[in-house]
Each structure stands twice: as C-alpha cells, then as structure tokens.
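Researcher: Following up on the earlier apo prediction. This time include the ligand. It's zinc ion, with the SMILES given after the sequence.
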Amino acid sequence: MTPPEKSKSKQLRMVKSATDDGKVEVTAPAQKPRGGNDSACPRCFGTGLEMVPGEGARRCDCQMSDHRERLFQSARIPARYQHCTLANYDAGNSESMWIAKREAQVVLDDFLVIDGRGLLLIGPVGVGKTHLAVAILRELIDRYQITGLFSQFGALLRRIQDSYNPISQTSELTVLQPVFDADVLVLDELGASKPTDWVRDTMMQIINARYNDKRLTIFTTNYSDKRKNDADTIESLEDRIGVPLRSRLYEMCRTVEIEGEDYRKRSVAQNV
Ligand SMILES: Nc1ncnc2c1ncn2[C@@H]1O[C@H](COP(=O)(O)OP(=O)(O)OP(=O)(O)O)[C@@H](O)[C@H]1O
Ligand SMILES: [Mg+2]
Ligand SMILES: [Zn+2]
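Model: Understood. Below is the ligand-bound prediction.
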C-alpha cells in the first residue's frame, strides 16, 4: 500500500505561514523558468519535480492530481454513483441511516489504524448502501491516494466465468488480480447470484484472499442475517453465502443494518 504522505506534503505545500509575532512569512517558491512558459505548472514548471528549500526535490502537486485522477479512473465507479459522497448522503430522521453514515465516517478517519476492518452494509433496496460504499471508496482514494476498485459481485462472477472462454482472451487472474490487490474494494450486492457450488467457491476464494491480507472491503447486500420468522421463505445472508464465509465477514467487517424507505421512490415522488 502506498504510504500516505499526507501530513508531510501538507507541510511542504504551505507557502505562507504566520510567525509567532503575527507576521506572514513567505517561503520562497521554486525558481521562475527562464523560458517563460505561462501554461506550465508554476511550482515545477512542467518538470514534475518541485524543489523544496531544505528538503530537496519531491513530486509536484500537479503530478499528484494526475495520479489521483488515474486512481479514480481505475476504480471503475459506475457513472450513476460518481456523485456519491458522505456529505450528500441524506440520513433524514432515520436512526439506522445516521449510524451507517457515522460508521462510514469512522472508516475514513481511522483508515490507517483499523487494520483492514471494513463494513457490511445490509438493507432493503434503495436505502443508499451502494451510495455509502462508493462515498467511502471515493473519499479514501482522494484522501490517501490508494488503489480502489468497485465491483458488482454478479458482474465479477460473470467476468470470471467468461475468462474460461478461450475467445474472450482474458485469464482468470487478469480479472481477479485487481480484486485481490486493491487497497480498498467495494463488493456490491453480495449474495445476489444464485449460490451454486462454483459461486460459493469463487466467493470464498476472493474474500479469503482479502481476509488473509487484511485488506479493507466494503460489502453491500439485500440479505439480512435474520429471517423474520421460521416460516419466512426469504433466505438469510448465511443461506446465500454459506456459514464459513459469513463467519469470515464477522471478523473482516462491522455489520450495519440500514432500514428505511426506497430513496429512488422518494426522489421520484418529490419531482412530480
Ligand atoms: N440517503 C440518501 N441520501 C442521498 N441519496 C441517496 C440516499 N439513499 C439513496 N440515495 C440515492 O438513491 C439512489 C439509489 O441508492 P443506492 O443505489 O445506493 O441504494 P441501494 O441501497 O444500494 O439499493 P439496492 O439494494 O437496490 O442496490 C442512488 O442514486 C443514491 O445516490
Ligand atoms: Mg446497491
Ligand atoms: Zn507541477
């Protein structure tokens, strides 16, 4: 994982700073270019390296934003969820949504010390599980410049299946390696695929790899831990993913159950 350079770069980026006697001290910026290229970055003049007095050369901020942009692109966040942030997640007056939002904030703030412990967001359709998961993913990439990946479980399983097809020219590992390696992974819609033996084995392989490496994973699912009563025909999460996998999730994640109205319905109603 890329070590976060946050505090150091924050310090280095400061150009103006107040001294004890209240005066503003201006740290000398890097030298001006002789050629006078106005469109080049004023810090590194297009070289990508910024000279910091007393510190030597370091990667310039302009390169950092390029780097961040590349990280966002490789995270493959669907267009529909590009706007999702914690700030625009409206918890209204639902206690469970406030709890979910708070837990998401904890993951962001404590990322460096939580030892890969993620979230399992459980709830009915449209309560904002994917919204929250993407918000965490986006904000972690932005804050710590780490690698992230959004993956919808059903689509991932299909891509793995396709990789067995010689015409598709992908190997199973090409599909799986980014899923194993991402510093933060969103696995959306856990349990949505029909739980055949192959599906269970493959889920186990993926989740176990991340479990062993203590990598942060955020799961979403429509399947709850509890059936409402014994006669209830709706399967539980354990029914869908199996006992060994559910057991690993207890260790890998904090479980957060979200209750509430379907936000999609709410927003349609407000527009008419
Ligand atoms: N509390 C909320 N505040 C703001 N936007 C929300 C909220 N809940 C949902 N949305 C928006 O409503 C849409 C549906 O939410 P989302 O897809 O996250 O729901 P979900 O719980 O993942 O549903 P599903 O179980 O069907 O996957 C998204 O556009 C999302 O941004
Ligand atoms: Mg969803
Ligand atoms: Zn620059």
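Model: Strands lie at 16-18, 24-26, 49-52, 56-59, 118-122, 148-152, 184-188, 216-221, 253-257.
Researcher: Noted. I'll compare it with the apo version next.
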